[in-house]
Amino acid sequence: MAEQNIGQILQAFNSIESKIREQSGLLKDLTAQVKVLEGQNKLLVQLVHQMKSPSPAPAEQIDPLKAEFQNSVTKSLKSIEEQSKKTMDMIKANGAGKKRVWP
């Protein structure tokens, strides 16, 4: 009778052990899935943050070489404009007293 009870106890322990192993495997799978979801969640949070944050001003987006080139072109254009104004003023000053020969 004692041997039968010991056999039943061992059988119960084996049954419990197999259920624990099965649940342990399920927990490992769930843990892996949770890690994947956490990674996706971090990416989504970053994307939402990027979408909510204001984009940099267009001047900030221009790389330094382009900005330097634009400044150079702007200076050249201003210089040409000033020279043109001076030339026009000189023409007006020289031609103010003269009358045209042709109509």
Question: How do the helices and strands line up, and which of them pair or pack?
Answer:
Layout: H1 2-52, H2 58-61, H3 64-95
Describe this structure in words.
This protein has 103 residues and is an all-alpha fold. The chain folds into two domains: 1-53; 57-94. It contains three helices and no strands. The chain has helices at residues 2-52, 58-61, 64-95. The protein is rod-shaped and about 140 Å long. The mean pLDDT is 85. Keywords: Coiled coil. Residues 20-47 form a coiled coil.
Characterize the overall form. rod-shaped
Ends apart, CA distance between termini: 141 Å
Task: Give me the strand/helix succession.
Answer: HHH
Q: Over the alpha carbons, how many angstroms does the gyration radius reach?
A: 43 Å
Quantity of strands, as a count = 0
Enumerate how many helices there are, as a single number: 3
Mean pLDDT across all amino acids:
85
Keywords: Coiled coil
In short, what is this structure?
This protein has 103 residues and is mostly helical. The protein has three helices and no strands.
Keywords:
84% helix, 0% strand, 103 residues, 2 domains, single chain
